[in-house]
Amino acid sequence: MAAEGTTTATVVLRCFDGAEVAVPAELARRRSGLVAAAAATGERVVDVPGNVHGPVVAQVAAYWEGRAAAAAADGAAFDAAFLAGLRHDALVDLIHAAHHLGDTALFDIFRPRRA
Q1: What is the DSSP letter of 12?
Q2: Can you give 53-97 as a three-state secondary structure string?
Q3: Cβ partners under 8 Å of residue 90, min gap 6
Q4: Strands 45-47 and 20-24, bridge-based pairing
């Protein structure tokens, strides 16, 4: 529980299906070009374009938080574990969300690796 008087600033990602996903503002600004642009204007609620569903945005937010925690350890292992077992449809949804949120780092984990 946070001490009295201290709160973590959040930004709300509002999806077309009405779902709202609260994300720590600093984390969202670092990960999402869309949120960073909206934060520059002082917006606390950001509409996610492109018909991205709420559960997918929630999954992206969970990825952001987990990846931030794993950054000090092994980010590549976290990425592999996060993607392991996801069905094709879920992967496509994540790519779609990464594109519309402007998260190039998430989008890049789907790019083929060159030897």
Answers
A1: E
A2: CHHHHHHHHHHHHHHHHHCCCCHHHHHHHHHCCCCHHHHHHHHHH
A3: 59
A4: unpaired
Which of 48, 17, 21 shows the shortest CA–CA distance to 32? 48
SS3 6: coil
Q: Which residues pair with 12 in a beta bridge?
A: 22, 45
Which conformational region is residue 42 in: left (phi greater than 0), alpha (psi within -120 to 50 degrees), or beta?
A: left
Structure-token pair, residue 3: 């001490």
Per-residue pLDDT of the chain (115 residues; tens, 9 = 90+): 444 444 569 999 999 999 999 999 999 999 999 999 988 888 899 999 999 999 999 999 999 999 998 876 788 889 889 999 899 999 999 999 999 999 998 988 888 777 5
φ/ψ of residue 99, rounded to 5:
-60, -50
97: left (phi over 0), alpha (psi -120 to 50) or beta: alpha
Q: Which residue is listed with tokens 């574990």? A: 81
